[in-house]
Amino acid sequence: MTAFREPLRLIFLKSISLLFDDVYKLPMINQMLGRSSLRTSLDLFALMSFLLLFSAGHARAEDGILAEFDAIEDTQYVLRLTNGDILTGVIIGFVSDPELGEGIQLDTELEIVTVYEYQIIEILPATDYYRHDHRIFVMPTARPIRDNHFVGSLEILFLYLGAGIADIVSITGGKSIVPTIPAEDQANLLNVKVTVYSSEADFGPGNISLAVGANWASVNDDNIFSHAYGVATFTQKRSSVTAIIFAKLGKDDFYTIEAGDKIDPFNVSYANGAVGVGLGLDTKFSQRHDVHFIGELWNSDVARPTNTSLLLGVRLANTDISADFGAVVTTQLGFGLITGFVWTPF
Q: Mapped to the 3 state alphabet, what secondary structure does 75-142 carry?
């Protein structure tokens, strides 16, 4: 148990900061619940995959979707079709057929296609189709939440929600709900991010966004700490790259981790003023609009290169649901599987 506890104590506290808190608790949580991390992750992934496929396979065309639609010139649109296909292109005209009904002409990368109203479930500007660009997996990007308010969970047992204000302020908060652990020993998190700049890049196609933020977190009622951070995101048509720098605030360098009677209390060292950095990538697969590769590289204290972790995963997403499935490798804890899902009903 000592060999397991030592890397866990170094990872646990650092992993809760900046929304990357539930990744490393899975082995301990599943041990409490009597389930393996592999089984839990695969169950969640299978469930969310089924929900995504079900929503696509049983969707119906929306009657009159073109009646009040006004296309903006030279704007990229995403069309979600009843057969599950997704098309992206510029709308260049409207057509009418006595048998097939109303339709549109879409200029895609490969050809000009005609799509009729009965085939269309949804039409959205390409900038509005992907509603999860405010985060990678747990790393915040500089992009605001906007009106993509959401509820979600990490590893089932950390529930959180987020909301945007005026395309500038993004607020996220959450709490763990691990069974049999007292309320005073549950983890809590509040994160506030302000997007201070967003504009097209001068050096090429793409958008640059800059944000600053702070968070407050508690491992239990007696161990409270906070961070300040700055983050930059460069977004292109298919991919986005994020860089973040953060600093731990407060006065304490040591914390005591407790979980009721499930584990023996132990101390964690996390130096006040420690500076950390991170890099993140979110990119769509070339032939799929609803499947993304996501990756994060973290170092929670640049003075300690061994405090490094790498997260790689896949995201299945539509305008209502996203399901993340991936793996994390750390220099201290080793290998583990992670899952998370988000619902954007608003």
A: CEEEEEECCCCEEEEEEEEEEEECCCEEEEEEECCCCEEEEEHHHEEEEEEHHHHCCCCCECCCCECC
Q: Which pTM value belongs to this model?
A: 0.74
Greatest Cα pair distance, the chain, in angstroms, is: 76
End position of a domain, from candidates 105, 127, 149: 127
Number of domains in the chain: 2
Phi-psi region of 97 (alpha: psi -120 to 50; beta: other; left: phi over 0): beta
* Same domain? 287 vs 253: yes
CB 332 within 8 A of CB 10: yes
Same domain membership, residue 123 and residue 164? no
Q: What is the pLDDT along the chain (346 residues), one digit of tens a residue?
A: 333 333 333 333 334 333 333 333 344 434 443 444 444 555 555 555 545 544 544 455 556 788 778 888 888 898 888 887 888 889 999 999 999 999 999 998 888 999 999 999 888 887 788 889 999 998 999 999 999 999 999 888 899 999 999 899 999 999 999 888 888 888 899 999 999 999 988 887 889 999 999 999 887 777 788 899 999 999 987 899 999 999 988 776 666 666 666 666 766 667 788 899 999 999 988 666 789 999 999 998 898 888 899 999 999 988 888 999 999 998 766 788 989 999 998 8
- Which amino acid type is present at position 70? D
